[in-house]
Design a protein that fits this description.
- The chain has ten helices and eight strands.
- It has 259 residues and is of the alpha/beta class.
- An eight-stranded mixed sheet has the order 2-1-3-4-5-6-7-8, sandwiched between helices.
- A hairpin with a 4-residue loop joins strand 7 and strand 8.
């Protein structure tokens, strides 16, 4: 069943009012960009990703992002801690299964984390298909499958975990296994900036945290995050001369949105 997006500006305004604390266990390449994007949308970033701290911090965070981009051994331990803590407290947590299917260590870790029932899984079509056992992954972090080809796999994953699955592409697909929302928009320049997709996972966590405080269903909060992100990308691209200026303008556009 298809659904429409529920008032992204209203939810973004609520996010700015509540300033959710988002713990990020993410890859080394994108940490700074992710933190800046979270600040721009109105959330509070915390890059707490070492064993012994990750679990306790997840118990007080508003949301947790686990991104498998550069999963060194110490961080993998911390990811298990944080996911377990978030699951036990009911805090929303987002799994971004970067390059699963192609690489064995992160694929095994992603399978392990699935058992902890992530609130949201966000990835490209090839990652989602691989995580669902319907594909072998993409070309590194790049998808080789289109979004619609991952629709059934995404719905199956959502039913398996009881959460929401978001597939990023030219038109994003968001499903809870029963309903589906498609979010058009965005710009190709997002794929030419390191961290464009990874930071979206953190923004999704912030929107879900804010949405729950407003009584908004998780699927609607995830779709709203994608809509706000895509609209900011479009505005930034319209005034950018290339990837460098786009990245700066994108953060500025996120900072202006929802005010």
């Amino acid at each position: 069943m298809s659904r429409t997006i529920v008032e992204p500006p209203r939810l973004h305004a609520a996010l700015r009012e509540s300033t959710p604390l988002v713990q990020c266990l993410t890859n080394a390449v994108v940490s700074n960009f992710t933190a800046n994007v979270l600040l721009a949308v109105g959330a509070a970033p915390a890059m707490v990703d070492i064993p012994g701290e990750a679990g306790p911090f997840a118990r007080v965070a508003g949301a947790v992002l686990i991104n498998l981009g550069t999963p060194r051994e110490e961080q993998r331990i911390a990811m298990r801690e944080a996911a377990g803590a978030a699951s036990s407290t009911g805090a929303p947590w987002v799994l971004d299964p970067v390059a699963v299917g192609l690489l064995s260590v992160r694929t095994a870790l992603a399978d392990e984390l699935l058992a902890l029932r992530p609130t949201v899984i966000r990835g490209n079509a090839s990652e989602i298909r691989a995580l669902a056992g319907a594909g072998t992954g993409g070309r590194g972090v790049d998808a080789v499958d289109d979004v619609e080809s991952a629709g059934e796999a995404a719905a199956a994953l959502a039913r398996r975990t009881g959460g929401v699955v978001a597939v990023s592409g030219a038109v994003d697909l968001v499903t809870d296994g029963a309903s589906t929302i498609r979010v058009p928009g965005g710009d190709e320049l997002l794929t030419r900036v390191t961290g464009g997709g990874c930071a979206l996972g953190a923004v999704v966590g912030a929107f879900v945290a804010a949405g729950r405080a407003q009584g908004t269903d998780d699927i609607d909060a995830v779709a709203a995050a994608h809509a706000v992100y895509s609209a900011a990308a479009e505005r930034a691209a319209a005034a950018a001369s290339g990837p460098g200026t786009f990245a700066a303008r994108f953060v500025d556009e996120l900072a202006e949105a929802g005010r």
